[in-house]
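Purpose: get a first structural picture of the assembly so the mutagenesis plan has something to point at.
Setup: two entries, given in the order below. No constraints added.
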Amino acid sequence: MKTLIVLLTLGLSCLAHAGAGPETVMTLPGDYARQREIQTRQWQAGDELTLLRSVMSAMQDLEFVVDDTEPPLGLAYGTKYVSGRRLQLVVMVRPMGAEQYSVRACAYFYGELVEDPEAYQDFFDALGYGAAIRTEALSR
Amino acid sequence: MPAAIRSRVGESTRTPGSFARGSRAGGMVLVVMAMVGCQGLWPAHDYLELDEDAPTWRATETRRFSDVTEQRLLAASGTALQDLGFTVRRTHAEVGLVMASKRGSAVNPVQVVGYIAIGLMAGQGPPAWDEEQEVRASLLIMPERTGGEDGFRVRLTLQREVFNTDGNTTRMEPIHDPDIFQRFFDLLGTSLFYEQQQL
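Result (structure tokens, whole complex):
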């Protein structure tokens, strides 16, 4: 009986360590359309570079240090230290029409994609907060 | 064989009933571990929520400048960071961004003395103490029109990673100390003065 338990444990341990093969690397997750939806918002702005600056300003409001940006690609990414771990945020801005842009944010905590819709809503709220402050400053 | 000895030699002292109870408890632990393993250590969703102190930090970490071009402000910001020992890693003039980092000492004499005392009391070597830190900085310039006057808002954000004498990370945290930011902006003002004087 003991031998059986030991063999079973070893077998399960081997299976657990085997993991998934590389063939799954390019497989779309089943809920990718929903993930894209919760990570994306339509945004109005004068131009792409101004919106990119607003994105980085929102990242700073959320205690991120901006790691880098690629303005021609509308890309900005940053890191926040949370409880001794890295929370990384990658944001992409794409033009959609006259003064209309698509903003997509992807957050990774400890290397894994954050899937919580509330987290993304919080980010877009922060982006709106910065815009509201600038509008208020303009009216002063 | 007495129960204590049976226990010491690894023989089970459980009755069939207690074994079943133990298995159930063990099973539950395994289920919980499996759930934690599958889910990963997800952050609470509020890690992307604005902190209630965000307006205070924004005020501490931001200064407004006028009567200066963005290019001069960007150059003066890079110079001020370099004067403070930072290495400017990259700049993007088209979006007013400067990224820099700095490595320096993180030795706290109080911690060192405390750890040596702990080591002596424990009859061992002292635990590894904080030795070095890497500070990362991003500085963003935002054009701003306030009260009919054009100007720029400069915001600096800082965070640090602390390493101990074993080379392990002991802390990763944002920096919000108002004095640190005041020192930077004082230096930026001076740097801007010299930039404008073309010195």
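The longest strand of chain A covers residues 85-97.
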